[in-house]
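Quick start: load a record and inspect it. Here is Phosphopantothenate--cysteine ligase:
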Amino acid sequence: MKILITAGGTTEPIDTVRGITNFATGKLGKITAEHFLEAGDDVIFFAGQTALIPKPHKRLTIFRISDTQMLYQMMETWVPKVDAVIHSMAVSDYRPVYMTGIDHFPQSLDLKTLLEYRPEKKENKISSKAPYQVMLLEKTPKIISQVKKWHPKVILVGFKLLSGVSQAHLIDIAQQKGRESRADFIVANDLTQVTKEKHRALILDHKQNIVAQLETKDAIAKEIVRKTHEKSHE
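Running the structure step on this input writes:
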């Protein structure tokens, strides 16, 4: 099989030297890629700029991904060429439209005024002299919702990470994500249940039923490989 794995996080640029990012390391994606390679699969690995990556392998192709726009374009190109997508990357929910000193910010906060306003860019690096800065953010596209549109028959494994919620709430949100994205599997996890040694997660199938409960990244990765291969033979 040809497997596309996304791992790590995106970085949305504020200017040429700053960006909004997250703390995702891509470790689970890396381990999952290694298990797919061990199983004889070809792996296309999309990694955030600081994400961990697997060791070189003849059946491994790695692309470094910067922001959500690049990820969208790369996935639109590659998803139709693969058999399965393991979308573990922590994609930014918002990206900067602009950042400006508060003294120059529009007085009116209606959406039309905010969107029409554009600070003059006299330098690539935003000045750090102003004591306060204001940033306007816009929502990024939900890439996982496009995967089945690009390739209806692709096997899709999505991920949902929350923090400090009840298991019932985590399952409910994961089920909602599964329905919206038409994912074949959703890996649901809570950040408070993730440590250096442990990584508790649930795997839900396309009917939103819990089909696995795991305790480590290695176990999660192995189960993703197993479920993906099983699904490919249905």
